Amino acid sequence: MSQPSPEGREQGRGTAAHNAVMRELRAQKDETYDPTEPTRVWLDEDTTPDGVVRSLTIVLNTGGCRWARAGGCTMCGYVAESVEGGEVGHAALMNQIEAARAHERENAASPAPLVKIYTSGSVLDEREVPPETRSAIAETFADRDRIVLETLPDFVTEDRLADFLDRGLATDVAIGLETATDRVRHDCVNKYFDFADFVDASETARSLGAGVKAYLLLKPPFLAESEAVEDMVSSVERTAPYAHTISMNPTTVHKYTMVDHLHFRDGYRPPWLWSVVAVLRRTADADALVLSDPVGHGSDRGPHNCGECDDRVATAIEDFNRRQEPSVFDEVSCPCETTWETVMERETAYNQPLVR
């Protein structure tokens, strides 16, 4: 597999300007975070190829994504929640794991079969999660049915997955691909790797016995609504052969990001929920499980329609996630769908957004 890196991408390949802006925006952060407490922990139910299962999700607070230290992705605010200083040690990370398990014991009758572990970057990046910690996490959750590990494709290697697979723990790597279109990933998302690197990482994971989950981003900045929808449909189709599950994430406006900077200067509108519906309808027969969780739906910072129908459309999306049946969308309608159709027809990337 090729070895992309933040350093190589930074030098003369078009992201220096993006990175300079992102560093300036993130420098405005004045919050601090406890290195012994996870960023977030929650219990939920997840739709998987094996059906709906209970899940425990842990977002570890690490020293931050290495790419974000260079500047990072235009929409990602998670690095702003990282611990100052660029490093969190083994003991503190295991304190975070124990805090997450304590939350589970207090709020669930039994351990969740599925555990999902995220950071602001990559669980398999040893700058964020040292080998010692990775092994201890694998041992801690060895009795669960499955574990999901967020990572960039660079770090999907046999030695880093061995801690989990050698214990007989079913393992998925969750890769933030964002789009199958290299131009959009580089110039709109400001992510440094190519689609070919995702393919290589997926093939490596599957050859070792791990599964692959891909995250795609609906409507990064600098795309019109119609362009974002078409890019997402194409991306689902191109990604499906390499991932058993595709999670389409509609962009939410996070603080200390370029998206935030554009949004409050009338240069960006989060995607319409009707756009989420359109993509799910058109990709319902993809050879992968296609899901979407519109975080912050109905808010100005999240994916939204007119405000009157947002909850109903979001409920239909949740129903689709469980049933994978596009007919659920036939049960929701709103006059604002006509406005969305006009936006799809007339909005252009050089003069957007047409409707706030």
UniProtKB/TrEMBL annotation:
One of its GO terms (molecular function) is metal ion binding. The keyword Transferase does not apply. Keywords: 4Fe-4S, Iron, Iron-sulfur, Metal-binding, S-adenosyl-L-methionine. Its cofactor is [4Fe-4S] cluster. SUPFAM superfamilies: Radical SAM enzymes. Residues 25-45 are annotated as: Disordered. SMART domains: Elp3. InterPro entries: ELP3, Elp3/MiaA/NifB-like_rSAM, RaSEA, rSAM_sf. GO terms for biological process: tRNA wobble base 5-methoxycarbonylmethyl-2-thiouridinylation. GO terms for cellular component: cytoplasm. Coiled coil: none annotated. Residues 55-282 form the Elp3/MiaA/NifB-like radical SAM core domain. This is Elongator protein 3/MiaB/NifB.
